[in-house]
Specification:
Aldehyde Dehydrogenase, Chain A, domain 1, 459 residues, alpha/beta, binds nicotinamide-adenine-dinucleotide, 16 helices
Length: 459
C-alpha cells in the first residue's frame, strides 16, 4: 500500500490542533475502547504470533497480551491523577507564588516497533503516547506480518485515523516516515537503526526515546543456588527462543563452578523442553531465514556443550550452550538474539570487568550469587539499562520500574507512569501573587548582597 506520509502527518497535526486530545476524558474514553478491543481480539493476536514464529500461547499471554491489558487498566485508572498539574514548593526567592508542573503532550508522535514482541512493543508505547494526549503514527515490523496486520485492524477499529493510525511496511516506509517532522519519536529496535533514527531526528531537534539492544552479561558465582539459577537463566534465555532484548546474552561463570553449572543447565533445559525441544510446544521458532542463517553460523561443533541441532525447514535452533567461544567469534561479536548461550569463565573480579568492558553498555545485566556483597558490587560497578540479582528478565514486569537502556543500549525509558511522563513535556509555570513584591532582586543592587546571600541559603 502506498502511503502519503506528509498528508498523514498534516492531518494528525490538524487533529492535535483541535485540542481534543488535551481532554483527559477523551483520552480515557479511547483507552477504554482500546482495552475492550484488545480483550476481544486476544485469541486472534495469539494466533497471529503463532503464525509469525510459533510463539507458544502461554508466552504470548504472559509477555504480550497480558502485559498490555494490565498496562491499559493501570493507565485508565491513574490517568486523571497523572495528568493533573503537580504543585511544588515555591522557591523562597519567588515568594509569594504557586509553582506547578504541567504535563503537556508533545503533539504528533511516531512509534517504530520491532518484530520480537511485535504486539506488546508496539502497543505499550502507544498507550503512553495516547494517555499523554498525543497523536500517533505507528509503524509495526514488516518481519511479523500476521501480527502487524492485526495491530492495524485493532487501531483502525478503535481510533479516528487522524488521531492514531498504523502504517505498515518495511524500511522504505520507515524512511519516508522519518523524513517527516515529528514532535516526538519513540523507536524500539537495533542499535544500528537507532542511530539512523537519531540522525533523522537531529535536524529538527526532535526528542527521541531509543529502546535498543546490547550484549547482556549474566554472572554466576560459586556462591549461588545452581539449580535455581539454571532454571531462571534457561527460562529467561529460551523464552521466545532467545529473541528477547533483555535475555542473558552470555554467561560469565566462576571457573570452578563451570562443570556443575553446565550440568544444571542441561537438566533444566530437559525439564523445560524435554529430550527433543523441537517437539516441545513451548519453544518458539526463529523469525526468518535471515536470522536463522545468522544464528546457525554461530554454532561451531567443537564448541557445543549442549544442543547445537538446527533444522532450516522448520527455522528451528535447539537451546544451545557454547563452550568459551573466542571473543572474535560470531557468537561473541554482537548481540546474539537467539537460543544460543556462550559460557565464559572468570577467576577474578578483574576478569569479569575486562569481559564486560569488551562491549558497549548493555541493556541488562544479571548476577546470580548468595553473596550480597559480591552481587551489589556487580550492580554498582557496571553501567547497564536494568537488571536483576538472582533472576533474569523479570524487572521488565514491574510497571513502577522505568524500562530503558543507557549508552548504546538506549536513551529514555517507559512503562506505567514512566510512559506517560516520556510522552509529556514537563512545563514549569509559576503564578506570582501581586499582593507582595519583595524589592530585593530589582536594581539598584547597592547594599543588598548580604540579604541576597541569606536568601540563597534557603533556596
Ligand atoms: P530493527 O532495528 O531491524 O527494526 C526495527 C524497526 O525499524 C522495524 O519496524 C523496521 O522496519 C525499522 N527499520 C529497519 N531498518 C530501518 C532503516 N534502515 N531505516 C528506518 N527504519 C528501519 O530491529 P528488529 O530486528 O526488528 O529487532 C531486533 C532488535 O531490537 C535487537 O537489537 C533488540 O535488542 C532490539 N530490541 C530492543 C528492545 C528494547 O526494549 N530495548 C526490545 C525489543 C528489541
Amino acid at each position: 500500500m502506498e502511503y502519503n506520509c506528509s498528508e498523514i502527518v498534516l492531518n494528525q497535526q490538524k487533529f492535535f490542533a483541535t485540542g481534543r486530545t488535551k481532554n483527559v476524558h477523551f483520552r480515557k474514553t479511547v483507552l477504554k475502547k482500546l482495552l475492550k478491543e484488545v480483550q476481544k481480539r486476544e485469541n486472534d493476536i495469539c494466533d497471529a504470533l503463532y503464525a509469525d514464529f510459533k510463539k507458544p500461547k502461554f508466552e504470548a499471554v504472559m509477555t504480550e497480551t497480558g502485559i498490555i491489558i494490565s498496562e491499559l487498566r493501570l493507565t485508565i485508572r491513574k490517568l486523571t491523577s497523572w495528568a493533573k498539574a503537580k504543585r511544588v514548593f515555591p522557591s523562597i526567592l519567588n515568594f509569594p507564588s504557586k509553582d506547578r508542573i504541567h504535563s503537556e503532550p508533545y503533539g504528533t508522535t511516531l512509534i517504530i516497533s520491532p518484530w520480537n514482541y511485535p504486539y506488546q512493543l508496539a502497543i505499550a508505547p502507544l498507550i503512553g503516547a495516547v494517555a499523554a494526549g498525543n497523536t500517533v503514527v505507528l509503524k509495526p515490523s514488516e518481519v511479523t506480518p500476521n501480527t502487524s496486520a492485526i495491530l492495524a485492524e485493532i487501531i483502525s477499529e478503535v481510533f479516528d485515523e487522524n488521531h492514531v493510525t498504523a502504517v505498515q511496511g518495511g524500511v522504505p516506509v520507515s524512511e519516508k516516515l522519518l523524513a517527516e517532522r515529528w514532535d516526538y519519536i519513540f523507536f524500539t529496535g537495533s542499535v544500528h537503526v537507532g542511530k539512523i533514527v537519531a540522525k533523522a531526528a537531529a535536524p529538527n531537534l526532535t526528542p527521541v526515546t531509543l529502546e535498543l539492544g546490547g550484549k547482556n552479561p549474566c554472572i554466576v558465582d560459586i556462591h549461588s543456588d545452581f539449580k535455581l539459577a539454571a532454571k531462571r537463566i534457561v527460562w529467561g534465555k529460551f523464552l521466545n527462543a532467545g529473541q528477547t532484548c533483555i535475555a542473558p546474552d552470555y554467561l560469565i561463570v566462576q571457573a570452578q563452578a563451570k562443570f556443575d553449572f553446565t550440568k544444571a543447565l542441561n537438566e533444566e533445559i530437559k525439564a523445560a523442553f524435554g529430550e527433543n525441544p523441537q517437539e516441545s510446544s513451548d519453544f518458539a521458532r526463529i523469525v526468518s531465514k535471515k536470522h536463522f542463517d545468522r544464528l546457525a553460523s554461530m554454532i561451531k561443533a567443537d564448541e557445543v556443550l549442549i544442543g547445537g541441532e538446527t533444522d532450516e525447514d522448520d527455522l528451528y535452533i535447539a537451546p544451545t550452550i557454547l563452550d568459551e567461544p573466542a571473543l572474535d567469534s560470531e557468537a561473541m561479536k554482537d548481540e546474539i538474539f537467539g537460543p544460543i548461550l556462550p559460557i565464559q569463565v572468570y577467576n577474578s573480579l578483574e576478569d569479569i570487568s575486562n569481559m564486560i568492558a569488551n562491549y558497549e553498555k548493555p541493556l541488562a545485566l544479571y548476577v546470580f550469587s548468595n553473596d550480597d556483597k559480591f552481587a551489589n558490587r556487580m550492580i554498582t560497578s557496571h553501567s547497564f539499562g536494568g537488571g536483576a540479582i538472582n533472576d533474569t528478565v523479570m524487572h521488565f514486569g514491574n510497571h513502577r520500574l522505568p524500562f530503558g537502556g543507557v549508552g548504546e543500549s538506549g536513551i529514555g525509558a517507559y512503562h506505567g507512569k514512566h510512559s506517560f511522563d516520556t510522552f509529556s513535556h514537563k512545563k514549569s509555570v509559576i503564578k506570582k501573587a501581586n499582593w507582595l513584591d519583595i524589592p530585593l532582586r530589582y536594581a539598584p543592587y547597592k547594599g543588598k548582597m548580604k540579604l541576597l546571600k541569606f536568601f540563597l541559603k534557603y533556596f
